[in-house]
Amino acid sequence: xxxxxxxxxxxxxxxxxxxxxxxxxxxxxxxxxxxxxxxxxxxxxxxxxxxxxxxxxxxxxxxxxxxxxxxxxxxxxxxxxxxxxxxxxxxxxxxxxxxxxxxxxxxxxxxxxxxxxxxxxxxxxxxxxxxxxxxxxxxxxxxxxxxxxxxxxxxxxxxxxxxxxxxxxxxxxxxxxxxxxxxxxxxxxxxxxxxxxxxxxxxxxxxxxxxxxxxxxxxxxxxxxxxxxxxxxxxxxxxxxxxxxxxxxxxxxxxxxxxxxxxxxxxxxxxxxxxxxxxxxxxxxxxxxxxxxxxxxxxxxxxxxxxxxxxxxxxxxxxxxxxxxxxxxxxxxxxxxxxxxxxxxxxxxxxxxxxxxxxxxxxxxxxxxxxxxxxx
Amino acid sequence: xxxxxxxxxxxxxxxxxxxxxxxxxxxxxxxxxxxxxxxxxxxxxxxxxxxxxxxxxxxxxxxxxxxxxxxxxxxxxxxxxxxxxxxxxxxxxxxxxxxxxxxxxxxxxxxxxxxxxxxxxxxxxxxxxxxxxxxxxxxxxxxxxxxxxxxxxxxxxxxxxxxxxxxxxxxxxxxxxxxxxxxxxxxxxxxxxxxxxxxxxxxxxxxxxxxxxxxx
Lengths: 376, 216
Hints:
Strand content of chain A: under 5%
Oligomer: heterodimer
Number of strands of chain A: 4
Number of helices of chain A: 14
Largest interface: A-B, 23 and 21 residues
Largest sheet of chain A: 2 strands, antiparallel
Radius of gyration of chain A: 21 Å
Largest sheet of chain B: none
Number of strands of chain B: 0
Radius of gyration of chain B: 19 Å
Shape of chain B: elongated
Structural class of chain B: mainly alpha
Number of helices of chain B: 6
Structural class of chain A: mainly alpha
Strand order of the largest sheet of chain A: 1-2
């Protein structure tokens, strides 16, 4: 059990950081402008994130599984550790970073190290989603902005009542945004562990089936929840007051449009319905919630007549899209090399017909290593 | 949630009552000054009492609104602007009270040839106040039409300035007012009455800024 938790810790750490950072995109402005209390925001987003992860997390997580079949827990641990470290260091260096892109970079690093062929169809789906998601968010943000402005102009609602409706809208859209975040981004946290899930399928009360993957997602959702409660308040206040100066109504538009985008790239039901109806469907891919937020802010900026759009900042964010997977991929490659070669003979790599079987330290050995490191 | 809907409804009622008071005070101000100019002392004193009562009610309402806004955490992001607008409007009702009290204490004697000008000045200032209340109501309900009222307030304020200046010129060139003290007394009276339109204009400037800050 200890070794299992140790291997899952990479994903749990990613989950915690996702909760601390990305949940702030959902309720940041609402909390910073005192429209919604932090405890209420944290409680709603925790419940919604877990619900989204457990109920609808399989779609986007499955795509990551197809990108790189990681066949051992230590490998999945290394990939998530590389992604988490990339996010950590790039954040420390004030560089825009996305967890989704770091995880994909890590998986590609694994593929290269293990000599696995990359599924280019999946990779192209993922890359297209990264480009499409902020664009779709911008379009939705643009349309919603005009729609809400039209409503405000024609309904003549009293300021006080409008404030009340905005508060309710922020809570509902925040819950939806958190649900979509859980559904879409749980793949980043636990996706690489799904093919090697250590949990058996179980049936709980009233014949409700609970798969091993769903148990992983529940664990990941709880890690995200912990991130929300322990660290997101500070981030929410930064997001709400320093980076984007949004009013509560524009914040609602941003949260709703980014939530819709996350949902579009996560909902298996919608995907299947579109496919059955012969309509083009979006791939189910974990996307960056921050980039969806940036996209909708830009959409609002366009609707306002391109006021206050900082193109330099956009270019910096765009550069982050390219550098994050590269950094995570390289780091994953290095970590795998380190793990495999530093602890022979248990970790010796076997070479066979182009594809290598990567023998990473077994659970007891990893525990031994950690114990030795602790005793230093 | 139901509690929040109720609190919001009470607050809207308070704001509406507050603005009604300001509007009533403007009407009473006009009547009071016209009655003073026509020498109807009894009616004038009854108006002063009504204005004083309205001013006191408005102070209570304003304090209540401020308390509710802060204690119930309503409109946190533009609470300051809303209170600023309400407090500035409250200055208008304070001015109406101050002017009628000042007149009651000082009893300026207005000559026949100045009465018409003063009546016009009173009417213009009253119009400025009336459109200020409309602008304030629009700020709370329909910010798109604020400018329709604000530009009228600016117009009446400008007109009031012109009438005030005309009165002052007439006063200082009049043979009927031989002493400087008398002339300065009537001049101050004109300044007091015109100050109502100046206050109205100041409120409208606050309303315009607050509306821009709240626009999407």
